[in-house]
Specification:
With 319 residues, the chain is an alpha/beta fold. The chain is built from six helices and 13 strands. The strands form three sheets. Strands 5-6-7-3-8-9 form a six-stranded mixed β-sheet, with helices on both faces. It has a four-stranded antiparallel β-sheet with strand order 11-12-10-13, covered by helices on one side. A three-stranded antiparallel β-sheet has the order 2-1-4, with helices on one face. The two termini are 29 Å apart. It binds adenosine-5'-triphosphate. The site of adenosine-5'-triphosphate has 10 residues, from helix 1. Adenosine-5'-triphosphate binds next to helix 1.
């Protein structure tokens, strides 16, 4: 995929967080993104994953099967770990049996099999992060975007994630990642891009190329948010593309919620809205935007109470 002249700012008049970004992410490559806190790494990764749209420029060629692990986990979702993975597997386009099998296999692989029936809200941060990573990997994505996905994982799970990343690249997928530990996959990256001053610039790669010093190591596990970009059904089951500016038929998600306040601006993915009984509202949004929508609803003041999250078959866009 390719980013050409991409810029991003929050709000119409906000400062440009990123400007004039030209970036190639070829298939079968491992790409590291690095930079200081607040430089715009997560912003760049959200654009790459397609859960956020550029304010300027063009993004083309994003693989249909894209999966994303963002920094924070919506632990308030009313699911057990396996039910959540099953749901996301269905959103990724998997059949029920296949989704259940893959969910179980990935939980087992990350040492979280015993927590399959634990409600998300009761998971430890590290186990929640294992679920976050499992939801992305179970899609066999052609583009995997990992925003500090190792944070909070125990040593065995970190090593397992390293292996899984290697497998994705070996299978011809692209992996784009941010991690504050400069030793993470050291020397394995095919390209390293540094974000600084709103610009993204390539720099030489190699075992000795380290921009982020040891003093920037995370001091503890951050809270994590499971990302769901899951834009496409695998094996060409649908023709939906996860372009942020492209809607139509394709995987979409219905979120039923109540009690919160809507933001002044548009909601992520501009969901269709349907008022229900008891003040509840059902938002229907393309699957690629459902994570951003959930995050917006859960972090609004007052926060929305999420009743249900269901796959839907079609998406309509409000004008
Ligand atoms: N939703 C948002 N609304 C307004 N500003 C935002 C939003 N998200 C990020 N920003 C701003 O964009 C800038 C870059 O943030 P971003 O999270 O992309 O940085 P980062 O490099 O990932 O930081 P860190 O290393 O601390 O995770 C910051 O100034 C941040 O405040």
């Amino acid at each position: 995929m390719n980013l050409s002249g991409v810029g991003r700012r929050y709000g119409l008049t906000g400062p440009w967080v990123l400007r004039d970004v030209d970036l190639d992410v070829p298939a079968g490559t491992l790409v590291r993104v690095e930079g200081a806190n607040g430089s715009g790494k997560s912003t760049l990764l959200r654009l790459v994953a397609g859960i956020d749209a550029p304010s300027a420029g063009r993004i083309t060629g994003r693989p249909p099967r894209t999966a994303y692990v963002p920094e924070r986990f919506p632990a308030a979702l009313p699911f057990t770990a396996s039910a959540y993975l099953l749901h996301l597997g269905r959103v990724h386009g998997l059949g029920r049996r296949e989704a259940a099998a893959r969910a179980a296999a990935w939980l087992e692989r990350f040492g979280a099999g015993a927590h399959a029936r634990t409600p998300l809200a009761e998971l430890s941060k590290g186990t929640g992060q294992k679920v976050a990573v499992a939801q992305a990997l179970m899609a066999d994505p052609d583009l995997l975007v990992l925003d500090e996905a190792w944070t909070g994982l125990d040593a065995a799970a970190r090593a397992e994630l390293d292996r899984a990343v290697g497998e994705r690249v070996a299978a011809g997928g692209a992996v784009v990642f941010v991690d504050h530990d400069p030793r993470r996959l050291a020397g394995a990256a095919d390209a390293v891009h540094a974000v600084s001053g709103g610009r993204v610039a390539p720099r030489a790669t190699g075992p000795d190329s380290v921009l982020v010093g040891p003093d920037t190591f995370p001091t503890g596990p951050d809270s994590v948010l499971v990302g769901l970009t899951a834009p496409d059904a695998p094996d060409g089951l649908t023709g939906h593309t996860a372009r942020s500016d492209t809607y139509g038929s394709g995987p979409s998600v219905r979120v039923t919620a109540s009690g919160g306040r809507l933001p002044d601006g548009p909601l992520p993915g501009r969901p269709a809205r349907e008022d229900g009984p008891g003040g509840s509202v059902t938002f229907t949004v393309p699957a690629a935007h459902s994570d951003a929508l959930l995050r917006e609803l859960l972090t609004s003041t007052p926060a929305w109470h999420i009743h249900r999250v269901d796959p839907a078959t079609t998406t309509s866009r409000t004008p």
